[in-house]
Please model this.
Amino acid sequence: MSRKALFFDIDGTLLSEVTRLVPDSAKRALETARACGHLVFINTGRSRSELGEIRPLLGELVDGWLCGCGTYVEMDGKELYHRPMPEAQSLHVRKAIEAANMDGILEGKDGCYVGSPDSRFPEGRRIRKALAWAIKSFNWNESCGEAEKFCVMADEESDRAGFFRSLGLDIDIIDRGNGFYECVPAGHSKATGIDVVLDAFGLELKDAYVFGDSTNDISMFEHVPNAILMGKHDRELEPFASFTTKTVEQDGIWYAMEKLGLLKP
Model:
């Protein structure tokens, strides 16, 4: 088989949301694919600074990292693409979050930023705990580092409609459900990150394979003809899937790659 470029989501695709581990079968699959000459990339909504526990698990098994829904691309430790939000846009977003009585987290290459150390939202508290090592500021009115994207949380006390109107056309919004939204600068997605890699290696879309399970994978499922859907997944992805595999815990990555001939030279 000619060289292919493989792009993997993390949570629910490579990383089990039950065990919080990457199955040994998935690790063997990535290693075997690279030995066959294929390129292996992580393609995640996480920013680079949010990869803390992932890099030790996968660092030696991949060729590069596509982070922040296409806003940052790294290959062999070298930056291929980086698009941070302008400071004026970041400031506008921070003010809008507070005005709408919402909570949010700005996600950047070098750190994440929140407006206060606590949150009335359970998900906000969970994120602060889970990313304690990545959060650089608990008061973004005084200081906030560079960010590529952001996530927000809303409830019945929030003016979410007013907030989304205030963003204008410069931000694309991904509804992750339960009042949680992933927000990315317009023109950027997991699909655009893939194009950066394909252009760098002179490959075509038919040479790409994507693996995912959730709504923030829709852009790459719509964009790439070879779209592998995990056994446990969001239904919105089903119309775009070319192959449905087993769950992470059922060795779904190995199963799909073997069936699709990606583990043979």
